[in-house]
Amino acid sequence: MGTTDAFRSEPGRFAGPPYEPGGLLDVLRVAAVVLDQRGRIVLWSPQAEELFGWSASEALGQYAAQLLVVEEDLASVLELFAKVMGGGESWAGVFPARHKDGTARLVEFRNMRLEDRSGDFYALGMATDQEVLRDLERDLALSLGLVAQSPIGIAVLDTGLRFVMVNPALERLHGLPAEEHIGRRVGEALPHADVEAIEAAMRRVLATGTPLVDWFTVGRAGGAATDEQAQLVSFYRLEDPAGRTLGIATSVVDVTDRHRANNEARRRTALIAEASVLIGTTLDLDRTAQELAQVVVPGLADIAAVDVLDTVLAGGRALPPDGAPAVFRALAVAAAGSPDAVRAADPPGQIARYAADRLVTRCVSTGLPVCVAEVRGRDLPRIARDRESAALLARAGLRSYLAVPLIARGEVLGALDLKRIDNPRPFGEDDVALAGELAARAAVSIDNARWYQRERATVVTLQRSLLPQRPARLEGLEIAYRYQPAGTASQVGGDWFDVVPQADDRSALVVGDVMGSGINAAAAMGQLRTAARTLSQLGLDPAQVLHHLDHTATGLDQMIATCVYAVYDPRGGRCCVANAGHLPPVLVRPGRRPALLDLPAGAPLGVGGVPFESVSLDLAPGDELVFYTDGLVETRDEAIDCRLEALLGVLSGAPRDLEATCDLLLSSLRDGNDQDDVALLIARVHDC
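-> structure tokens emitted (688 positions)
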């Protein structure tokens, strides 16, 4: 058998693709040399010619030691050769090999003994340039070090999309050791991932070679029980130096904290935007507080309470003295579940005293937020009002607590009290800042509502004090009346009515409306009512009374008012009426449809220089006159003619009892419409 026959491949032995240069061995330029038992070269590869300089024709048949080894290393090399050939030992090392040009080059050398079918031995030597090998080793060590120590998760998958390498960072991200990745597809290793989308993306990268960079994903990579992770995933196709596809590399960057921060920022922005729209829609104190409580549940807390210091509502000193308890008036509670925690809260409208050692007392005393991120059993007595409330909070499973002060115009008004029960996340700095911002916005609305409430109470008190408290006993007339203030302080104060007995058993009936609102309108109304009452004692014709009232109104800082003035004489059954720009009274006669009195409209009081005209009509027993102000009938979305027709329709079916008729008119015509106050006066004629 020839030497070359001993190493010839069998036909069909390898089924792989034909050799394509550019692989790792080509980069290393590994030279192969075969020696016979005497050390002569019998095989010489092209890489050997490239490495040592001698062609095959020059090297074959030569003693390798004489051709390749420098003189001083000859003895050592021959000794090593004898050991390899004699005992079958392998040898690896570095020695200086002689090049054809006479220089010596350090060569990384591997030597082993071969045996053919005849039992003859040969020595196979494989060599590469040490410098090239060391460069490659450094590159490989650097790559492996970077992969192993990188905080970015890195994995390599083969062309079948099976894991072949996973670095420690990816093990931590997936919560899965490397050995449970290797050899598995994505769906096998990570069953809770979006396998279909991931593998489709990988196949596109494998097919096109176009990387997919920073693909944002959110999921539970390590299983359903793990926390949600946000990641930036990139895929790159791996190729060898010859351009052959080896597989795909993936890098995974954990951006969960950034994702949560962005979500928190969006949540905060959304809550603030919602608060700006929903809080302070009215000047009602209780409703404003309820709006605040509802905005923060469940986005910020599971249960929220809004409490205002009772001294604030009373207009006294707001803050409790050092060491003194805080007295709150509960305004609102909102909750998402947890009935025990709701029962522990102070019911709206009730007064609650919190001792000086309670956290909410400290909150309003210092004007600073108080936060207990992780509530323990020892914290409950400092949070709850009393032992019973503490037991309810313990049973509800209170996890986290936060109280922020309500501060407006430099004054502490109360506190926003927040609790988390079902939400496992403790209150943090971002929550404190968000709650503080919401409380600051709401506190201004609460303070406005508080001042409005006080102003409204003052105006209503003044208004009621200027109106008759009970109808006078009149000859031949039965009287019923109502006064109903507007729903806002800015609209209260302009309407009035009066019933004034006169000489000769006559009676004056007056209903008026000062244009404008608030305390100034109430004061002007009081002056006009006083003037009308005084003039009514002079027995003047209604037109003359309005003439004098017009002069009075002109002097009231350009105040304008409307008024209807009537005088009833029971002896003749006559009623004389004059109108100053007011809506006409309604005449109700038994058996007939109610009708508006046909009166000259006249000009409002305060215009000046316009004459007024009196109209007389006969009234029989059972006839009624209904006087009213525009707040009873006017609305923003219906014409006044339609509303007056509605008034007549209600009076058509009104009961005979005048008090019941007053209630019917208010409930039928004023339901949900409280933008203006109402004065209503009904007079029925009866036998003397």
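The chain is about 35% helix and 25% strand.
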